[in-house]
Amino acid sequence: MLKIDRYAYINRLCHVHPVEKFSFALLTMMICLLSSSPLTSLLVILLMAGLVILPARIPVLFYLKLMLIPMAFLVTGVLTVALAFTKDPCSFLWAVKIGGYMFGMTTGGLIAAGKLFLKSLGAVSCLYFLSLTTPMVEIFSVLRKLRLPPLFIELMSLVYRFIFVFLETADKIYIAQASRWGYATLKTSYFSLGLMLSNLFSKSYYDAQMLFTTLLARCYTGELKVLEKSYSFSRKNLLLITAAELALLIISWWSGASTNF
Amino acid sequence: MRDKNVLEAKGLNFSYPDGTQALIDINLSIPRGKKTAFLGPNGAGKTTLFLHFNGILKPERGKIYFAGQEVCYHHTALLELRKKVGIVFQEPDTQLFSASVRQEVSFGPLNLGLSREEAEERVNEAMEATDILDLRDRPTHFLSYGQKKRVAIADILAMQPQVLICDEPTAWLDTRHAARIMELFHKINRAGVTIIFSTHDVDLAYSWADYIFIMKDGMVIGEGAPERVFCDDRLLEEAELERPWLLDVYEELKRRGFVAANSPPRTREEFFLSLAGKESCSLAREERKGRSFKRECLQGFLGG
Prior knowledge:
The structure holds two protein chains of two kinds.
Chain A: H1 2-10, H2 18-34, H3 38-53, H4 60-82, E1 83-86, E2 92-98, E3 101-106, H5 107-133, H6 136-145, H7 150-178, H8 186-216, H9 235-254
Antiparallel strand pairs in A: 1-3, 2-3
Helix pairs in contact in A: 2-5, 2-9, 3-5, 3-9, 4-5, 6-7, 7-8
Chain B: E1 5-15, E2 21-31, E3 35-39, H1 46-53, E4 61-66, E5 69-70, H2 75-84, E6 85-88, H3 92-95, H4 101-111, H5 116-129, H6 145-157, E7 163-167, H7 175-190, E8 194-199, H8 202-208, E9 211-216, E10 219-224, H9 226-229, H10 233-238, H11 245-255, H12 268-286, H13 293-303
Parallel strand pairs in B: 3-8, 3-9, 6-7, 7-8
Antiparallel strand pairs in B: 1-2, 1-4, 4-5, 9-10
């Protein structure tokens, strides 16, 4: 997760208008989810992988590893769709008989599972595209433009900032404990971990109070007003995005399975 | 006419909710346009006092005056005070709330009700002064401690306060970064901003401050110009402070007659200059040749 955050700030698409990236990722994800053609899903996966690896210059190996993370959930989830459990003995590709019931895989189930698999992976790759190319701060500014309640966005940005302070503190405590044999045996490990968690809790509480004081000292009146970075829209990018979305729409239409629209 | 003292405390008492008496009958005046240092051990009440200076804490008894005016504690008056008196806190990680350096620095100016353009200008000026322009688009969590410290200072500078308070500006910094921060303060001070800082470093306070307060156990136990405060051995002992090395060396050289007995030097450079001055006098008198007198007198000092 921290690596994704790091790449978000150093990738080559970092300077593209966040609204462009945000709307591109979201529109593509909608098309991918609404279209029932597996071809569309496959195209979305390839498109996003291409964009992340070529113009954004994210290392291929890192991206593949990232794609493996949802795979574990997907495979188990999809298996339950592929397997069927009925009394009807027909149309099974492979089955075992348990009592009066048949348990196995049907062609329909397998196709549905495959479609679902590709669709989910497509949607995930859209989100990966967004999070690998757009820093969190810019995503917040897009959400602000979308008129989300300020309180919500302020909370999100504070949480984001303090995740790092929290992790750093946890790391320091861990090192301090480990250097004094705090994690030598299973028993001491549990004990040290408990101490660390309670310390982190009280430290976070203290930090929150201190943060409020420091904000007050800078004339805080209940709203976290900040300057946002100004980007200019690129006509070329907007055209490319429209073209890509239209192409995806046409393809999913043409592949004849756009019944879900 | 503007008051000579920018901040004053009269009969200031404060205790925390848990009962610890943090400040006891503090009476002090902070000169305008100067660099004032607060010295004292941990828990002496320096931070608590600073929090009174911009109205974060309200005195239990006693009063605070800003530019001769008593500080009021209603909303708008407090905002006005905080606009003029800025505090840089010791721990940058609790002060920096934003993940973006630029947004972080822009928070103060925008709170002052400035327009986007004005705020933008202030942010750029403050980042230039603290030498962090190249960090503008860097996320806060990628920064080193020294960089975070400079961002924390830029935070306050961007609000262009009349008084800049800095709690332990050089804590945990290496000597090079500490010197850079002190130079920055010097620059800000020359632009007319009153600087108040707390420190444990007697050498730093001796070289950089125009006026010094020494605190212990919630009380001010001594104040004055640095050369006076640091020559008061009883005061230093009471406050558990060491004498600056420069003063020690100077006194020893003076005792042995190697330097003229005028006012003690404040910085390393002044010290060497005073040695050089002595050198040229004695050269004229004794017509010495060859070896540098400065080296000789240091050798003499070390040898005997």
